[in-house]
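Two quick folds needed for the group meeting slides. Do the first one here.
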Amino acid sequence: MDTTYEIQNRILIIHLSKELDHHSAVGVRYTADGLLEQGQSDSIVFDFTDTVFMDSSGIGVIMGRYKKVMKRGGFVGVVGVGPCIRRILEISGMYKLVENLDGKQEEGYAN
């Protein structure tokens, strides 16, 4: 599955592919930034449901988008985080910046 993007209630939801590595991170960064620049969303939710691998490039993608949406007063969240990705997010300290939104539906993310 390729990475897909949708906007719901001014939230850009990025359904990530199986791997978020150096090669895929370039496309995710480019597309997400383009969608943010269109002004239809203020926040981002990264959906890791299908993702089994992420390297430091993935952390960079999240950090860069975090900086962009915080300037807009938005937030960054993650959903569908499996054990391997959870561990990476914990070790990197990302949970200090992003919220684990598992259990919340898209329409409730901003609440």
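Then this one, please, same format:
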Amino acid sequence: MGRHGVAETVAGAAVLAVALGFLAYAILHSGRSVSAGYPLTASFDHIDGLNVGGDVRIAGVKVGSVTNAVIDPKTFQAIVTLNVRDGIELPKDTAAEITSESLLGGKYINLSPGGDETDLKPGQSISITQSSVSLEQLLGKFIFSVTTLNSAKSGADGKPADGAPK
């Protein structure tokens, strides 16, 4: 009986060690790094779908992540804090835009470096920003414009302009 308990304990420890090894591998190779960097802030009218931990990219390459998002009680804008990895020196006229990965994908911040000779310092704010585009708002505007266009094409007598019955 004592020998059987030792074998089970050793097997359990081996399984646990393998599981911890897989977990460590997954964390190290997930693309989410906790590297050093410097903080910047940016103000947006709305940040629909952008989450803390979201990517910050330049030309599609991840260069940082979103670390915080709060509301400014005076302007009612979203203040986003992002961390950009060391070695990426951004000019003062860098633009920040909230973009979608795909139609149904998550949002990230895309940085477009400008040509200013002065660089942003840690803690400074990116002044040129573009908020996220809401798919629902775009569809609503499209449907409204199509409805308006169809109404304008109808004649005063309520019949379609081509004379076909309604």
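Slide caption for protein two: The mean pLDDT is 84.
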